[in-house]
Design goal:
Number of domains: 1
Number of helices: 3
GO biological process, one term: response to cold
Largest sheet: 2 strands, antiparallel
Strand content: 5-15%
Shape: rod-shaped
GO cellular component, one term: cytoplasm
Structural class: mainly alpha
Distance between the termini: 25 Å
Number of strands: 2
Keywords: Chaperone, Coiled coil
CATH architecture: Orthogonal Bundle
Strand order of the largest sheet: 1-2
Helix content: over 70%
InterPro entries: PFD_beta-like (IPR002777), Prefoldin (IPR009053)
Protein name: Prefoldin beta-like
Length: 129
Amino acid sequence: MADEANRSAFMEIQGRMIDLTAKLKQVQNQMRNKEGEKKRAYLTLEELRQLSDDTNAYKSIGRTFVLEPKSFLVNEQEQKLKDSEASLASLQTSKEYLEKQLAEVENNLRELLQQDPGLARQIMSMAVM
């Protein structure tokens, strides 16, 4: 009876670990994408700042290009930069939370396996097959 309870507890912990790992990878991918957006906005902003203030430049909208004043484009890139930084801060918080949750689940799994060495042997024999 206790063996079956430990087995079901292991399955539950394993499912939670898989779920948390997937969420963590998703957050890391989102962070990587936001880093790219931030870098593009920064580089575009640096190039725009080299132009004189009365210059008009083309902005890409899909496959169309629209002529815009430099000040409008600079403001737009600065806003993209701020938004990316805010998103990165939020994603970093989520990442830290998920890492703590994952560490907690790993500790729960470790405690369960130390509590029932027979379960650990069963799992190892299933993994070998």
